[in-house]
Structures are given as C-alpha cells and as structure tokens.
Amino acid sequence: MTTPQTDLALPVGDADLARRLQERMARVEESLAGHVVGRSQFVTDAARHLLEAGGKRFRPLLVLLAAEAGEDPGNVDVEVAACVVEITHLGSLYHDDVMDEADLRRGADSANARYDNLVAILTGDFLFARSSELTSRLGRDAVRIQAETFTRLVEGQILETVPPGPGEDPLEHYLEVVAGKTGSLIATSARYGARFSHAPAEVEEALAAYGEIVGSAFQLSDDILDVASESGESGKTPGTDLREGVPTLPVLMALASGDPADARLHELLRGDLSADGPHAEALALLRAHPAMEQARRYVVARADEAKALLTVLPEGPVRAALEAFADVVAVRST
C-alpha cells in the first residue's frame, strides 16, 4: 500500500487551497493503490512497483487544481479522472524503461531490471487497460478524449525512435515528440479537472492549452538542466542525455548554428560521446555555447505564453497557483 502524500508538487500559496488539495490527493493516492490490484499477487506487485517508488503526482494534482476553476471541484469524477491520468502515466513509464534499457526509475530498480522486458511491457499494458476501465466511468466524451490523448502519447514515443524525415527541421520534429509524449497527457489532466468540475467551455479549452504548453516546457527545462546542472542538483548525472546521444533542445539549437567556430562542437555532437573524454569536452563546449541561453529564453517564452491563457480565470489563489507553476518551469531552466 502506498503512503498518502501530503507535499504538493505544485506551488500553492493559499493555505485553504493547499489543504483542500492535500486532502483530495490523499484520497487519490489511496484509490491508486486499489486500482492497480490484479487478480494475481504477481500482477499486483509488478503494477505497484513504480507506484510505490513515489513520484511527484503532478498530473493528478493538476486535475484537482484545474477543478477549482469549476463550480463543483469536489465532484467524485474529478478524483476518478486524477487516477486515470496517473495510471496512464505509470503505464508509459514501464514502456519507456524498456525502450531506454533503464536500470533505475525513481531511485528504485526499473520493472524491466527487477523482472524482465516482457513483464514490464505487459504490466504497462495492464495499467493502460485499467486506466481505460476507469475512463469508461466518466462517459463517452472522456473515452474519446482519453483515446485521442493515448494516440498522441504513443505516436510521440514512436517518433522519438526515428530521425526527422527528408527536409524536416530536426528541432520541429523534437518539439512534436515532446508535445506528444509529455504535453498531451498534461493537457488532458487540466482538461479533465475543468470538465468534471463543470467549468465553462472557454475555461476548459484555455486550461487544456495551458497544460500542453507547461507540460512541454517542463520537459524542455529538463533538457537544459541535463547540460547545465552540477552533480546532484538535478537528480541525475550531468550530460546523461548527451552521453546517450539523445537529441535535446540545447543540442539541436547548437547544431542549427552556422558559426564556423562551432565545427568542433558539431563534430562531437554528431559522434559517439559514450567515452569520458569526448563527453567532457562536448559538455564544456555546449555549456559555453549561446544555444544554452537561446534554449532558456525559449522555455521562458513558453511559460509566459501559458500564463497569458489564464486570463480567463478570475484573479485569486487558483490562478496564482497555475501562474506560479509556469514560473517554476521557467526558473528551473535559468
């Protein structure tokens, strides 16, 4: 059984709002533990493995916060929707770890390391199926929204494995991957909260757009931190994506530079950086490159774009919390 979390992953300055969200998150946490139970103990243990490893629970919390924009934030469907998005996210993590051949996830053994790839893949499928069962409780429109979201999420995962097509901008290709893999489910989290608390349609659409932008920007800020942070600051070894040859925002912006002085950096970025020497050289050159500041400005601009969508909400604690999260996304990359 997971331990109900009381800390909030989003910055909430209003004490009453924070208390309501903490109480509802505790119920969601308890429900999550029940929803991943299978018919056999083995399935239950495998499905609970990453759930019990923790995580910020950002997506279900965003459902609950967005619900505060409607007239019925305590609607039971809001909490069901919060479980739907978190279980969908958990399922994607099992598949991600197989694709990435990861050994660790949230400080614990990944499911593929603890069991094997087959069990990890099927456990992810089990969680996706369970999220679909829960979605069916929310009505036909929710089933459609969930299906469309899942399509985008999986397509983003597929696109991540293939290079850009002929004539396609590598940066645009990457941003499409991020929007699908990360932005789509966070957008749906905000949409569900607004929808099932009976917020006006224009509020629902604005919050869904806000969620997609902030979700994508959050991933892009991780890209910057992978290069800029020192050991221990970001929770992973600096330059991990760089060493593994994963294209990220600052890398792609550096590669787009036409400055002849960047020839050595381009050579390194297009080569094998698994060895310590080339990796250290590439990391140092990239940290000093204007692409880092360009990437930071891009993330800040996206956060500002997200905040501008919140003008549909009255000024108050809910809007302030959503604005604060967009600011956190921007600040963590600077």
From TrEMBL:
Q: Where on the tree of life does the source sit, at the highest rank?
A: Bacteria
- EC number(s) per entry: 2.5.1.90
Instruction: Cite the InterPro entries for this sequence.
Output: Polyprenyl_synt, Polyprenyl_synt_CS
What keyword terms does UniProt attach to this protein? Magnesium, Metal-binding, Transferase
Any one GO MF term held by the record is:
all-trans-octaprenyl-diphosphate synthase activity
Instruction: Tell me the cofactors it needs.
Output: Mg(2+)
Transmembrane stretches, by residue range? none
Family indicated by similarity: Belongs to the FPP/GGPP synthase family.
Q: What is this protein called?
A: Octaprenyl diphosphate synthase
**Which organism was this protein described from?**
Nocardioides aquaticus
